[in-house]
Amino acid sequence: MDGAHKEEEKWDLVIQPRRLWFDLHLRDLWCYRDLVGLFVKRDFVTFYKQTVLGPLWYIIQPLLTTVVFTVIFGKLAGIPMDGVPPFLFLLAGNVTWGYFAGCLNETSNTFVKNAGIFGKVYFPRLTVPVSVVIINLVKFSIQFTVFLCFYAYFIARGAAVRPTFLLLLLPVLIFQMAVLSLGSGILISALTTKYRDLTFVMTFAVQLWMYISSVIIPASSIPEKYLPIYMLNPMVSVIEMFRYAFFGQGVVDVVYIVVSWVVTLAILSGGIILFSRVEKSFMDTV
Amino acid sequence: MPNKVIKVEGLSKRYRYGAIGHGTLYKDLESWWARIRGKEDPNLRITEHIGPGLEGEWFWALRDVSFEVQQGEVLGIVGRNGAGKSTLLKVMSRVTTPTNGVIKIKGRVASLLEIGTGFHQELSGRDNIYLNGAILGMTKAEVRSKFDEIVDFSGLEKFIDTPVKRYSSGMYVRLAFAVAAHLEPEILFVDEVLAVGDVEFQKKCLGKMEDVAKEGRTILFVSHNMAAIRSLCRRTILLDKGGLLMDSATNQAVAYYLSQNLIEGAVASKEQIESRMEGLIRRRNPFVRFREIALLDRSGATKRSFHSDEDIIVSVSFECLQPIPQIYIRVTVVDENAIPVLESINLDDPIATQDSKQFTPGVYNASCVLPKNTFGGRQFYLTVHLVYLKTEHVFVNKILEFDVIFKGYNSRYEVTGDVFIRPQLSWTIQPGCREQLNASPK
User: Fold this and answer.
1) What is the pLDDT of residue B285?
2) Domain B267-405, architecture per CATH
């Protein structure tokens, strides 16, 4: 018995039909960390080599959306924006949401987009969505800079906004968005391998998600009794905190932060489990 | 003491024909709703109409395959297309999971299932070396230490900072193989890399594999190239329909494979050709495909046994799937070791070349006459290549077998015709020795 056990242990790799749910191989991901870096570099170089219009579009897009939102929701619908200038209020929401939605959309088609390479060589599939989340930070930092410019401009013009100590938590907020978009993105990417029509629903669903994520309607305008349910959406807390950091206005509460993190981590674990289940059998279904 | 590095036990892999499920949430919901109401599932009809054997049927790509590999061994894996060779390597390299069975591996594994995976067009050769290396499992530091060697092997020093989109396909392959060849894994899986690249580069690749083997590393080598298998592997396994048919010394396995691979009769059908077809195949958008290859006599009857005083007509039917300006058909008569004896290309004939300048989609037949009084009395085999420019090159090796019975040119002597070529040549016999004849020209 003991001898047989020793024999088993000598093998470096044992490939067998997958039976366990929690057979995740997360250590592999660490071994391939250089690959994540190189994927990021690849995407950065391709991004850099685009025409001027590509990067410029990243600036135009949130600005244009914000202008439209300002006219519709600020001027016409008259939604109260916590006393912050509507344009700045909506720009903050759009820029943060933009990062989240960008990561989500891109990670959600991990399998479909990489079917060719996945079918030929093994490497931990998670390296792809992880690198997407990192490379999207480039796009985010461009848009964030735009936001900072407008922020400075509005302060100079005497808008009643002031930064708060929560600014220190900004990296944590971005990290949480990265984790959340990664989690939900890989969850969806695993589902879309089985159900192709989910891809079409996705775009629509992300749009809807935005409307209940406090991008336009601040949590302070939500009726008190619905607020606990509303806060179950982890993105609400993130965007509220982001705006609190810059404007000093927003619904921020330790309980909500904890809830938001719990939901985020639950989605991430669900995503990783489903993703690693699919990554093994995926090649047989496409 | 020999050291086992790979142990495969009862390995099976099952695929399902068609998609798993309906592929869309909508249809799954529709079926579910129909079932709840006790009605017939509207998505079921596919199974019934196509009949048994298709939708929902299982297909075993590998069936209960078991073998072991010792350290430093170069194991050949042969079998027809669809025998399960590639599936075996895919399962072993973790691209897909087995349905049953266990594979145990000792040491670092690298696979060259398809080289150049993950190359990015916009990136330079340098960046692609790093990226490709990382995809194949190397760390940045490892690639860096090997970088000069890789560039040297590829012979692309001058172009290393050029984006690979400007590379020719040959350069691309060379760079890709160079990266893969320097992986330094303990175990290497190789699948058909030698089908690409020029002859010189192929030799270089084979040489590199020999070096790797000499260093005590283990190689699993899948190929249709029997010469390469023979020169590299001492032991070979033969797969057939997913099962392990033979596990023996290379010569034995290859000989068995070749004998089993022959087609009875003088006509190779489309299916028979496709199961044996090799080469550079662009699956998505093919230009040309074989339809039928047959051996005929002058009367048009198919046969595989000819007298040496009969013309042998090789008839190659092919289908053009897209309009193409020119096609290249090469008919080669080879011996049992696949050594070429005689060869002819359609473009050799200026009249035929002139007549066929444009091919619209459709089926064509090309025939080539191997003139009488050419061959000796022997067994020959036919290899046919079909090429469209550089993009498509398919061929079937030794697709048909034929005998020539040597008749002799007259009956005054004993017939000994066991040679490849036995044409009737002209002779002169004169009195005198050579010097005398030269001195007084006729």
Assistant:
1) 66
2) Distorted Sandwich (2.70)
pLDDT tens for B229-285 read: 888 888 999 998 888 888 999 888 888 887 776 677 788 888 888 877 776 665 556
pLDDT digits (tens, 9 = 90+) for B94-139: 888 888 888 988 888 877 766 667 788 888 889 889 988 888 888 8
Query: Does A178 have pLDDT greater than 90?
Result: yes
Give the bridge partners for B367, in sequence order. Answer: B315
ipTM passes above 0.90 = no
Cα separations in angstroms, B210 against A110, B221, B238: 38, 12, 21
| Amino acid found at B419 | V
Q: State the alpha helices, DSSP H only, in B93-225.
A: 125-135, 140-154, 169-181, 199-214
List residues bridging with B329 in a β-sheet: B386
Suggest the residue from B131, B187, B191, B220 to mutate for an interface test with chain A (most A CBs closer than 10 A): B131
Interchain contact A154–B (C-beta under 8 A)? no
A121 and chain B in contact, CB less than 8 A: yes
Which residues does chain A have within 8 Å of residue B15's beta carbon, measured at their own beta carbons?
284
> Chain B contact for A286, CB < 8 A?
no
Q: A204-254, pLDDT tens digit by residue?
A: 888 899 888 888 888 888 888 888 888 889 999 999 999 889 888 888 888
Q: Where are the domains of chain B?
A: 61-260, 267-405
Contact criterion met (CB below 8 Å) for B327 and B359: yes
Neighbours of A38 (CB within 10 A): 26
Q: At what angle do helices A53-69 and A86-107 cross, to 10 degrees?
A: 130
Give percent of chain A above pLDDT 90: 27
Å between A113 CA and nearest CA of chain B: 12
Mutate to test the interface with A, among B15, B16, B97 (most CBs of A within 10 A): B97
The CATH number given to B61-260 is 3.40.50.300
Contact flag B99-A120 (C-beta cutoff 8 Å): no
A10/B106 touch (CB, cutoff 8 Å), yes or no = yes
Mean per-residue pLDDT, B147-162 = 88
What is the structure's pLDDT at B280?
A: 63
Are A283 and B90 a contacting pair at CB < 8 A? yes
Q: Note the helical H segments in A75-169.
A: 86-107, 110-113, 115-118, 127-156
Q: Cβ neighbours of residue A153 under 8 Å, at least 6 residues apart?
A: none
Nearest alpha-carbon partner for B401 in B302, B305, B321: B305
Indicate the domain borders of chain A.
Answer: 22-285
- Which residues from B are below 8 Å from A37, CB to CB? 140
